[in-house]
């Protein structure tokens, strides 16, 4: 998972956001001291947009720590909710019914740390004929992220067949957090995978900027082909497919703990929220070959711990939008998708996202070129019920569904009119 509660130390270490002083008058004050934080002004206005509410769906059960909701292609409205500790259920949000899809809990029984576990599920675009879907989860001894392929049974109520699992990719992990792990297919049929920097504060090994490791990257692979001994193919149009100095799977660079990978159903643009360390939570428009700066940058500013890029001449792409805990806006971003439904007037094309810690739900209003204009508050936390959103996604019709760590699935909807 992506939501460390007490390890996210809110001490100001960003180079450009704090006034730093040192005193030579007394030995005990020789250390640099953080004094008054310089709080940057908001880059766009925030305004409340009344008339919305979160309605908890009335399933007969809870879904323990849900992390993803994936639509079954041609599945008669069914989606699969993936839970961090290894259970997967097929659900229909329109009538709040569910059934078992995959029980992976035995495989995950010793995977207990806060961010370990299942991170994603994605159905092949041709699932209706090939029955293939893909998982992202973690394992230990050695500690690693596993991307695997599995088949499901035939019929209108498919269930997974664990005996068909084929490992597609394994990424060795140095530490036990910042896994990332969301995955999904793009409009081009390629599998996209978002991976975190491997853990600890400050990206100590600078993995997110290292072009020869997969940490802190968005990957793009072709699961329908093979390159040599690889159990997948490298798309010929990947940005580094012909660069011997970069892993060819890499699509974008410089992410810390990406969570909430999504394609805009209208434009095909790829969006990703990235969880920050001390100062900034950010929303990125992912473009092929782009570098999003972590760990020499966090949000729109440089960092003190890696004051220079790992590689000289590195150009960084700023986030489309970032918010900061220096203004008390939130502590842990949750992505996120572009709204393209039909029921919520005025939100078409807005990026919906939330904050896990505060329980806020926002809509980022943008122009046609994805320049932010306003941040609209749809729900302001804290909520009367325990609500820690883990994903903002959509039902098969494109209407917003929010997953919460407490086990609930929520619909964002208009307040009823008396």
Question: What would your notes on this structure say?
Answer:
A hairpin with a 5-residue loop joins strand 18 and strand 19. The chain is globular and about 60 Å long. The chain is built from 1 helix and 29 strands. Helices cover 1% and strands 39% of the residues. The strands form 8 sheets. A 5-stranded mixed sheet has the order 3-26-25-24-23, with no helix packed on it. The protein has a 4-stranded antiparallel sheet with strand order 4-29-28-27, with no helix packed on it. It is mostly beta strands and 418 residues long.
Shape: globular
Low-confidence stretches: 1-35
Total number of helical segments? 1
Taken in chain order, the helices and strands follow as: EEEEEEEEEHEEEEEEEEEEEEEEEEEEEE
The class by helix and strand makeup works out as mainly beta
Please give the structural blueprint.
Elements: E1 18-21, E2 33-37, E3 46-48, E4 52-56, E5 66-71, E6 79-83, E7 87-92, E8 97-103, E9 118-123, H1 127-130, E10 132-139, E11 144-152, E12 160-172, E13 180-185, E14 191-195, E15 217-221, E16 250-253, E17 262-263, E18 270-274, E19 280-286, E20 297-298, E21 301-302, E22 321-324, E23 333-338, E24 351-355, E25 361-366, E26 372-379, E27 389-394, E28 400-404, E29 409-414
Parallel strand pairs: 3-26
Antiparallel strand pairs: 1-2, 4-29, 5-6, 6-7, 7-8, 9-10, 10-11, 11-12, 13-14, 14-15, 15-16, 17-18, 18-19, 19-22, 20-21, 23-24, 24-25, 25-26, 27-28, 28-29
């Amino acid at each position: 998972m992506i939501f460390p509660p007490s390890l996210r130390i809110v001490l100001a270490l960003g180079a450009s956001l704090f006034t730093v002083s040192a005193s030579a008058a007394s030995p005990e004050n020789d250390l640099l001291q953080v004094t008054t934080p310089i709080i940057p002004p908001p880059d766009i206005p925030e305004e409340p947009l009344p008339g919305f509410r979160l309605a908890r769906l009335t399933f007969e059960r809870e879904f323990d720590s849900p992390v993803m909701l994936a639509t079954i292609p041609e599945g008669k409205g069914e989606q699969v909710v993936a839970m961090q500790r290894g259970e997967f259920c097929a659900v229909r949000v329109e009538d709040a019914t569910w059934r078992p899809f995959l029980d992976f809990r035995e495989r995950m029984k010793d995977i207990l740390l806060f961010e370990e576990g299942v991170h994603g599920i994605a159905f092949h675009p041709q699932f209706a004929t090939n029955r293939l879907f893909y998982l992202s989860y973690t394992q230990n001894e050695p500690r690693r992220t596993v991307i695997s392929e599995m088949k499901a049974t035939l019929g209108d109520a498919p269930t997974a067949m664990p005996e068909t699992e084929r490992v597609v990719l394994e990424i060795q992990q140095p530490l036990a957090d910042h896994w990332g792990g969301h995955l999904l297919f793009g409009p081009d049929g390629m599998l996209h995978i978002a991976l975190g920097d491997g853990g600890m504060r400050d990206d100590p090994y600078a993995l997110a900027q290292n072009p020869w490791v997969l940490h802190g990257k968005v990957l793009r692979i072709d699961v329908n082909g093979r390159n040599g001994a690889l159990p997948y193919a490298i798309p010929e149009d990947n940005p580094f497919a012909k660069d011997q100095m970069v892993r060819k799977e890499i699509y974008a660079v410089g992410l810390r703990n990406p969570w909430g990978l999504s394609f805009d159903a209208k434009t095909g643009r790829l969006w990703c929220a990235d969880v920050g360390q001390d100062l900034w939570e950010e929303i990125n428009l992912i473009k092929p070959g782009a570098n999003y700066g972590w760990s020499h940058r966090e949000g729109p500013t440089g960092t003190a711990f890696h004051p220079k890029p790992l590689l000289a001449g590195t150009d960084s792409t700023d986030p489309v939008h970032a918010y900061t805990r220096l203004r008390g806006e939130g502590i842990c971003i949750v992505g996120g998708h572009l709204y393209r439904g039909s029921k919520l007037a005025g939100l078409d094309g807005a990026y919906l996202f939330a904050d896990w810690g505060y329980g806020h739900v926002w809509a980022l209003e943008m122009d046609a070129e994805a320049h932010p204009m306003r941040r609209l508050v749809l729900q302001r936390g804290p909520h009367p019920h325990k609500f820690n959103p883990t994903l903002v996604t959509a039902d098969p019709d494109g209407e917003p569904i929010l997953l919460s760590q407490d086990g609930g699935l929520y619909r964002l909807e208009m307040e009823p009119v008396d």
